[in-house]
Please model this.
Amino acid sequence: MKINKSPWIHQLDHTRKSSVLSTDLDTDIAIIGAGIAGISTAFFLLKYTKYRAVIFEQGKLAHGATGHNAGQVVARFERPLYELVEEFGLEKTKKALQDLRSSWVLLDEMYTDANLSILFSRVSGVRGFSDLNQVLGTLKDLEIEHIAGLNPNKMLIQDKAPFRGLLPKAYENLFEFVSHEEILKKLETDNKDFHAVVIDQAACINSALFCQEVAGYLLKKFPDRFFIYENTHIIKTVLKQNHVLLDAGKHTVHAHKVVLCTNGFEKLDILNESGLEVDKRFHHNVIGKVGYMSGYLENLNKAGAAIAYYTKDSDPAHDDPYYYLTRRPHEMGDEKHNLVCVGGPEVAINDREEYLNDYDYPDKIPGDIDAFIKKVYDPDPNRKIDYQFTWHGLMGYTPNRVRLIGAEPKNSVLLYNLGCNGIGIIPSIFGGRKIARIIAGEKLEESIFDPRVDAKS
Model:
């Protein structure tokens, strides 16, 4: 089955003109990748520095992971906070969490500066849990959020939950008991497997359309300092002591610095003339996972939603513990409909294995998504759902599931803003602002996002 029809790509301006690199070029900052990370990096560089910036995209703008996600915006890590505390310590984890939460303001800044009118739906982000281990792990994280001064919402737990008597008293200020009906209502389900919920800030956005519109704004606002070259594959980067050379096939690009804003699976060789190995470490620093999603239209009779369901029976073969759902008005066509998008199944791919846009969509996965929807969200046994969209996208996971943001320790002319880790929009925007601060010469305190010399960074 070879289907990859994304609702976000569907909404882009397919008459937009693009340019391919046709000559040698000199610029201050070269950015590789024209997704949410690359566009955000360019935005903050152009706004807060005087440098020239050029984006190189081997395909089309926002047609990679940015155009093949579920459209859900959250400021979280896809890794337990208590594990991050064990690895990095409490203070660095607190600061990283605070940085992500404050990055909603950065998204608003981009939206406001570019005077965007595209749909951006702020919603309650709801996470539903089925068993004691999920609840205890989340309570540990809420405790860390509380210590960080973020005042998280209390977890709501069913008053007759089967594990009620096993909840530690140390967490009793972090949760409250409510009826099962209230739990299920917040999760929009009749499935009684769920016994607890946490609600926090979330949003729904077409990040591909967002990138397209912000890029258009930047091209008009900074015509002498910014350009985008699409269908331009950077084959090799040669890192010198104070500058970098980019091999674009027939043409060469000279830049003072290069920022990789990719998923880590592009065909790119990195040569460091100092002799210190960078290429192998970079390519082994990102693990690829193909995420699969389906979408369909329903009546416009519900508000927007962003829900994650941690079920008891997640399929371990997909190597992902939960399903996620977003619901929002469909921006094109019939305004009487909501677009419901559901994802969850993932399949890992080997290091540096080529990912193609028409990558096989395993026949089993659409059935798994449909079965989940019927079991949890839309239990009508007589309803046959017409999926207008079925798509997949490549996500880059760093080994510790923390985004990589900052300068390469072995040669600072190379910087990174990469590693989707399953939750990429807010971290990408935060990363863009941080990269701009680094290039502007600011001395920043150490962070869990910093690239490190050891293999786990």
In short: The domain at 19-69+207-285+400-439 is CATH 3.50.50.60 (FAD/NAD(P)-binding domain). The chain has two domains: 19-69+207-285+400-439, 122-204+287-396. The longest helix spans residues 132-147.
